[in-house]
């Protein structure tokens, strides 16, 4: 089988192995957050940061929930990295935003963070802080979910079909999952443009 066919076959297997119940739990958390007028903060690094930015747009525009991604403000992100260090960029941003019990953190990450290996320490610090203040946590992550899966109230784990393609499948399916979420009838409040054109 050629690479294209193999990759598409892996993609099909990812879809087949996704857990609908975990996705429904995330839907519930988002709905509850919006119902209490809480905010949604989406955290991601690298490709997941780009996904976070796109998802913020969709959650705000399609579901009517107040949503933000710390990585959208490149000036603050780089100032905090330069002045205070990478591990604290998200937690300090969340402190300034007065994260509280009404709010929800959503993590997009390939590995979900690993304390022992010092991978994504900025995500780990943010999630520890969220727990301290009583905010809810959800995630869309790959591999075994890492620290995010341990800390989350609800977590969608993108199954690893091919270890060689963990990152591309995880980041691609972050997009699939958030588009599913904003399209869910329990969350969607506004019609998308092309669906509204007769």
Brief digest:
With 198 residues, the chain is of the alpha/beta class.
Give the topology.
Elements: H1 3-17, H2 20-35, E1 40-44, H3 47-63, E2 67-68, H4 74-84, H5 89-96, E3 104-109, H6 121-133, E4 136-141, H7 146-151, E5 154-157, H8 166-183, H9 193-196
Parallel strand pairs: 1-2, 1-3, 3-4, 4-5
Helix pairs in contact: 3-8, 4-5, 5-6
Describe it for me?
This protein has 198 residues and is an alpha/beta fold. It has a single domain (20-187), classed as Rossmann fold (3-Layer(aba) Sandwich), CATH 3.40.50. The protein is 55% helix and 12% strand. The chain has helices spanning 3-17, 20-35, 47-63, 74-84, 89-96, 121-133, 146-151, 166-183, 193-196, and strands at residues 40-44, 67-68, 104-109, 136-141, 154-157. Helix 7 links the parallel strand 4 and strand 5 (154-157). Helix 3 (47-63) runs parallel beside helix 8, helix 4 packs across helix 5 and helix 5 (89-96) packs parallel to helix 6. The N and C termini lie far apart (42 Å). The mean pLDDT is 96.
The shape, in one word, is globular
Strand order of the largest sheet: 2-1-3-4-5
Name the CATH superfamily assignment.
Glucose-6-phosphate isomerase like protein, domain 1
Instruction: Please state the oligomeric state of the protein chains shown.
Output: single chain
Query: Main sheet, how many strands, which sense, barrel?
Result: 5 strands, parallel
Number of helices: 9
End-to-end separation in angstroms reads: 42 Å
Give the topology string: H per helix, E per strand.
Answer: HHEHEHHEHEHEHH
Query: What is the domain tally?
Result: 1
CATH top level is Alpha Beta
CATH architecture: 3-Layer(aba) Sandwich
Q: What radius of gyration results from the CA coordinates?
A: 17 Å
Percentage of residues in helical conformation: 40-55%
Strand percentage: 5-15%
Q: What is the structural class?
A: alpha/beta
Number of strands: 5
> What would the CATH topology be?
Rossmann fold
The residue-averaged pLDDT reads 96
Low-confidence stretches: none
């Amino acid at each position: 089988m050629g690479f294209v066919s193999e990759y598409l076959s892996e993609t099909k297997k990812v879809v087949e192995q996704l857990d609908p119940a975990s996705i429904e739990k995330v839907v519930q958390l988002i709905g509850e957050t919006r119902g209490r007028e809480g905010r949604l903060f989406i955290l991601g690094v690298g490709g997941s940061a780009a996904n976070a930015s796109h998802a913020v747009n969709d959650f705000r525009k399609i579901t009517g929930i107040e949503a933000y991604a710390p990585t959208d403000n490149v000036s603050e992100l780089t100032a905090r990295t330069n002045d205070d260090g990478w591990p604290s960029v998200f937690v300090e941003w969340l402190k300034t935003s007065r994260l509280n019990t009404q709010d929800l953190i959503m993590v997009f990450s390939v590995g979900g963070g690993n304390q022992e290996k010092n991978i994504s320490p900025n995500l780990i610090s943010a999630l520890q802080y969220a727990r301290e203040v009583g905010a809810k946590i959800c995630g869309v992550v790959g591999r075994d979910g890492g620290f995010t899966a341990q800390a989350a109230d609800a977590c969608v784990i993108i199954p690893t079909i091919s270890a060689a393609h963990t990152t591309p499948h995880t980041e691609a399916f972050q997009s699939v999952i958030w588009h599913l979420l904003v399209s869910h009838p329990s969350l969607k409040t506004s019609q998308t443009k092309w669906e509204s054109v007769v």
